[in-house]
Amino acid sequence: MKSDSQRESTPQDRGGLEVEGRSIDFVPDHERTDKLSAQGPFWFVGNFTFFTMTIGFVGPSVGLSSLWTTIAGTLGIMFGTLFMAFHGSQGPHLGLPQMIQSRAQFGYRGVVLVLFATLFVFAGFNIVNLVLMMQGLNTLFEWGPMQVALAVSVPATLLAIMGHDWMHKTFKWSLYLSLPLYGLVTVAVVMGWIQDAPGAVAEAADAAPPLGFDWTGFVAQFAAGASYNIAYAPYVSDYSRYLPKNTPSGKLIAAVFLGASISGAWMIAVGGWLAEHLHATDVLVALNSVGANVAPQLGSVVVAITILAFLPVIAMNIYSAKLTAITGIDSFRKITPTVKVRVWAILAVVFLQVGVAMSIYTSGSGLSVLNIYLVVMLYFLVPWTAVNLTDYFFVRKGRYAIPHFFLPDDNLYGHWGSRGLIAYVIGFVAMIPFFTIFNGTEEVYVGPLARMIGSVDMAWLVGLIVSGVAYYIACLTLDLEREERVIRHIEKTSPWFTTGEGW
Questions:
Q1: DSSP readout, 291-338?
Q2: Which of 2, 228, 292, 495 is most exposed by smallest CB count within 10 Å?
Q3: What fold, for 27-376?
Q4: What is the pLDDT of residue 464?
Q5: What distance lies between CA 362 and its chain's CA centroid?
Q6: Is 446 helix (H, G, I), strand (E, B) or coil?
């Protein structure tokens, strides 16, 4: 008999854009109706936001000109996007959310180690975004924090509840809104239409030192761009799992890479210019200034469209946080992934992030504490992405016993995957001497090896290399022949791959 989620999600439903019935369960072949052509624009919009512009603030803050900020940020974004793009190829091949597949490396219960990190990163990005919008809209229009929270969270929550198809649909409309908007902003920057920095964004103009090139700053901006898109890694297969199983991996990787890297580089370039020439510290205030310099009242229009086009990204974070939360609970107490479960998980995530955002905004502590939190959470994510990709491409090479991901006992991967957990811990410990954590310009913790290289954050690169190598070595004793026999038996006898039954 089919589960509730399977009865509620049919091809006809999906064609009609009904509420998604699936959450952490396997997507059978007959429901794989997405198109490869939608992946590039989807991930383009994911980075085509005002929040990505703030990554471009890093370079000028450490002495880089906007030109060198653009170069370093572009190279960093391209490097980081490689990792998220390779994760994307797992979606159509396995038909699973990203974190369910991680049970192969960390075990049915051991995966909670990385689930906590990914959940807090998903929620954390939304908290950062909410606080940024609370600050910007209060400065510009005197909106209260609760007004902002409701105006942003209510539509984003409804979109996350509606699910996968609605996400793709609204991302398309977001592209239609944001492309001309940021096109106008870019033209205004290139053509030099912004002559003077209006008061709010030019407070430090006279005191600012001249910007140019600095190797330490260049590496810092590269690292910021790379780590920003590496943090997208846990998302990607959540939105590619409805693609047909025979989707060419190379084309999918290329689509994700081009979409996410082009928009990311574009926004970092604009952010670098705003930081150098307008001395921007609040991106919404800066965008309002750009619009107001072009035409009267255009600044308000720019800000309004910026927020509206950003709502699907807020929803994306909620949607993936929901999948992660359900996976974590399911690891210890079996859950049937019905629509009701999805809705309750989404509401819990939204209440959490709104509450934390309100607390940070009203406390006056600003975003610095939260930025520290996100850096630390990124440190927790890096060993996971190295272990996961090493397993998928070099160890098991895409061969998994999918029904065993949902068996609490007697599954092929065990409760605790010692190889993955040990490799994760080794990689994380190796990162500690390279940790570089600042509260604005105030040093919080800089590891001894990081200090030797000018306090540049290279911990993420160390974690990628060490965790991946450690996991590969640990898997040299893995009995892959036994796993292959189990997989072939499943492929011959199980209805999973055609009907999804057996869940």
A1: HHHHSTTHHHHHHHHHHHHHHHHHHHHHHHHHHHHHHHHHTTS-----
A2: 495
A3: Hydantoin permease (1.10.4160)
A4: 92
A5: 26
A6: strand
Whether residue 497 has pLDDT greater than 70: no
* pLDDT > 70? residue 361: yes
**Residue that is written with structure tokens 């038996």 in the block:** 489
CA separation, residue 136 to residues 29, 67, 83 (Å): 45, 26, 32
The residue whose two tokens read 């491409």 is: 393
Cα–Cα nearest to 424, from 459, 387, 475, 461: 387
State whether residue 439 is helix, strand or coil: strand
Torsion of CA 175, 180, 185, 189, to 10 degrees: 120
d(CA 471, CA 114): 15
Classify the C-alpha dihedral 424-428-431-436 as positive or negative: positive
Give the model's pLDDT for residue 366.
Answer: 55
411: three-class secondary structure by DSSP:
coil
Nearest partner of 165 among 320, 15, 390, judged by Cα: 15
Tokens of 209: 């030192």
Token pair for residue 258?
């081009």
Beta bridge partners of 437: 445
> Which ranges in 23-111 belong to alpha helices (H)?
39-47, 50-53, 58-61, 66-88, 90-94, 98-101, 103-106
* Residue closest to 99 by CA, chosen among 335, 321, 353, 310: 321
Q: Is the pLDDT reported for residue 349 higher than 80?
A: yes
d(CA 174, CA 159): 13
Look at residue 499 and tell me whether its pLDDT is greater than 70: no
Task: Please give the C-alpha separations between residue 77 and each of 125, 195, 254, 258, 434, in angstroms, as whole numbers.
Answer: 17, 30, 14, 11, 21
Place of tokens 């060419």: 248
Strand partners, 443: 438
Q: Which 3 state secondary structure label does DSSP give 444? A: strand
Using only C-alpha atoms, the chain has a radius of gyration, in whole angstroms, of 23
**Domain limits, the chain:** 27-376
In the DSSP assignment, the letter for residue 438 is: E
More confident residue, 293 or 104: 104
**Shortest CA distance to 75 belongs to which of 90, 60, 55, 93?**
55
Q: Can you say whether residue 86 is alpha, beta or left, with left for phi > 0 and alpha for psi between -120 and 50 degrees? A: alpha
Beta bridge pairs of residue 445: 437
Quickly tell me which residue has 């308000």 as its tokens: 300
The residue type of 402 is I
Q: How many CB atoms lie within 10 A of CB 479?
A: 8
Helix (H) or strand (E) holding 442: strand 442-446
3-class SS shares of the chain: helix, strand, coil, % to 5: 70, 0, 25
Smallest CA-to-CA distance from 436 within 427, 447, 425, 428 is with 447
CB 53 within 8 A of CB 267: yes
Any idea what DSSP says for residue 413? Answer: T
Beta bridge partners of 446: 436
Strand 436-439, strand 442-446: pairing = antiparallel
Residue 291: φ, ψ to 5°:
-60, -40
Query: What tokens were used for 379?
Result: 């440190």
Cα–chain center distance at 247: 23
